[in-house]
Amino acid sequence: MINKLIAKIMKRNAPIVVGLDPMMKFVPEHIRKAAFAEYGETLEGAAEAIWQYNKGIVDAIYDLVPAVKPQIAMYEQFGIPGLAAFKKTVDYCKEKDLVVIGDVKRGDIGSTSEAYAVGHLGKVHIGSNEVYSLNEDFATVNPYLGSDGVKPFLKVCAREHKGIFVLVKTSNPSSGELQDRLVKDGTGEKPLYEILGNMVAAWAEEYMPEQGDYSYVGAVVGATYPEQGKILRDIMPKSFILVPGYGAQGGKGADLVHFFDKDGLGAIVNSSRGIIAAYQQEQYAHFGSQCYADASRAAVLAMRQDIATALGTL
Hints:
Blueprint: H1 2-12, E1 16-18, H2 29-39, H3 43-61, E2 67-68, H4 73-76, H5 79-95, E3 99-106, H6 110-121, E4 123-126, E5 129-132, E6 138-141, H7 147-160, E7 163-169, H8 176-179, E8 182-185, E9 188-191, H9 192-206, E10 217-221, H10 226-235, E11 241-243, E12 267-271, H11 273-276, H12 292-311
Parallel strand pairs: 1-2, 1-12, 2-3, 3-6, 6-7, 7-10, 10-11, 11-12
Antiparallel strand pairs: 4-5, 8-9
Helix pairs in contact: 2-3, 3-5, 3-12, 6-7
């Protein structure tokens, strides 16, 4: 799957992933009204609204980008109907031949981590059958419980030829409270994110596809920390880097150069509300809420231009 992602990035000249993180305040009124008219102001009505909202955006941008990244919490808040909307979104994106990165940030130990890995990336055994459940192509993984929480995902990735992105240096302002803490290792003191980066690099070496330069094992490194991104790019040469924090969180194309390799590959940049809620921004307000998906397409084109200019790939 990592090779499919790279091929699609190269074809689109767009190392971009669109975060499908729907909130009701982003959903245009005409979509909400139609959903509530059919299902009422219920969990089912909310789930229908976010599904229709997602579908409009995907229809508008699928030919421009290689991948999408639905954040599962935005769906879980609407209970079982919300999870059904998550699954419909994943399936529809795959019908459009988009790579799907499940932003689920799972990580536990033993059988619990195995169940997470199977549920999101693998097949679950039901009697004599093996059935895909949520069936994303990649998943984000929280490594805080150590290798016990990551290895079950690695086994599933090897079996299914899918991938993970391990949280290493996240984009949020308070990430340094833990991730920048100095920790002693065999060579002295290093920030915790560097130690995690070395762990990811070792896993990446072990889990390589038969062909290609990049591993099934990638890392999450926030656009808001470009200097750390430069360090981690060197530490993890075989890992693709998922870069959140572009746009609404302050990251811009000029900040991203060091996340990429010299060949212009090695990273994929996420934008969520900067694209899916573009119509609510001043520069795209002329589209109006009825044409919210056209505003999202315009935001993707602008983002692609910004990154290409920074990388010199125009």
